[in-house]
Amino acid sequence: MNIAVEKVTSSKINEVDFDNLAFGSVFSDHMLECTYKNGAWETPKIVPYQPITLDPSSKIFHYGQSIFEGMKAYKDKDGGVWLFRPLENQKRLNISAKRMAIPELPEEYFMEGLTSLLQVDKNWIPENDGSSLYIRPFMFASGNGFHASPADEYKFIIATAPSGAYFSGKVRVLIEEKYSRSANGGVGFAKAGGNYAGQFYPTQLAKAKGYQQVIWTDDNTHEYIEEAGAMNIFVRINDTLITGPTSDRILDGITRKSILDIAADEGIKAEVRKISVAEVVAAAKSGELKEMFGAGTAAVVSPISGFGHQGTDYDLPELENSYAMQLKKRITDIQYNRAEDKFGWRYRVI
Ligand SMILES: *Cc1c(COP(=O)(O)O)cnc(C)c1O
């Protein structure tokens, strides 16, 4: 594929303080852009990072056809550049696209487009320990008209942002029993922008009560815990790690499935089954609840220090050797090319 590259006249890279990077707020020099028009995706091109001009009637504004992915590029100590299971993101983007009636993108447009962009902006991939280049592929309806129907034009864009080590500290969470993130037959399994919009208000309410995040429960009975904010959730009861099964409502996270494979490899007993709120509360009361953590690309694991449920707060113990940190180390050692990759998850870009 012949991807045209229009380079910036002068790079912004010298203005960036790579030792103090907030998450996702400084953007690299270039972006990949690809347009769907007249029934087909055009060849992607690389252009300077820039604003997008859209007609006020663009369907993205009114009907929310918008999906995204989140991934990272990692630089090893020899300057090698790696992705982690990128084809999983590519496949999931198309799963999300299909559900939102957005045309699917050919695999090579995603993979060749992404690797070309990383080659052009390779100097933006941070080298500091724990830093990475956060990659945000997204797709939205750019076609016009107030008619409530799928658009006839779309954009696929990949923008990237150098990011420092992501550690927010342990979080206190609230088990949510009124609002739902997703429902059977809905779009919870898709990385659709609207799923996030719908989470913000209940999360604001939880924050006002002193929690940092919401634990979503199933929409029907609110008896089963399903996700931690925008991350998959893991619970450790005694020595068993448990996570819920993917479904219409639970997103098929790449970190989640990598954790399950690594747990099996490390001899950690893991179960994929429904986790009831009652079981978690009982285990917290008896002291058998050892850990809870979210799992997702940005933080890999996000440990939970305690949770609120129906007006009562429960604290989790401080563990010396948590599964969360053991699993995070195994995954990040693979991502940064510091350890053997027996699963074949690393993907070399440079
Ligand atoms: C992206 C996301 C995850 C985590 O997926 P990863 O592939 O591990 O980054 C989990 N839950 C939701 C709702 C998400 O949007």
UniProtKB/TrEMBL annotation:
Its cofactor is pyridoxal 5'-phosphate. CDD domains: BCAT_beta_family (cd01557). Its EC number is 2.6.1.42. GO terms for molecular function: branched-chain-amino-acid transaminase activity. This is Branched-chain-amino-acid aminotransferase. Belongs to the class-IV pyridoxal-phosphate-dependent aminotransferase family. InterPro entries: Aminotrans_IV (IPR001544), Aminotrans_IV_CS (IPR018300), Aminotransferase-like (IPR036038), B_amino_transII (IPR005786), BCAT-like_C (IPR043132), BCAT-like_N (IPR043131), BCAT_family (IPR033939). It is an enzyme of class 2 (transferase). Signal peptide: none annotated.
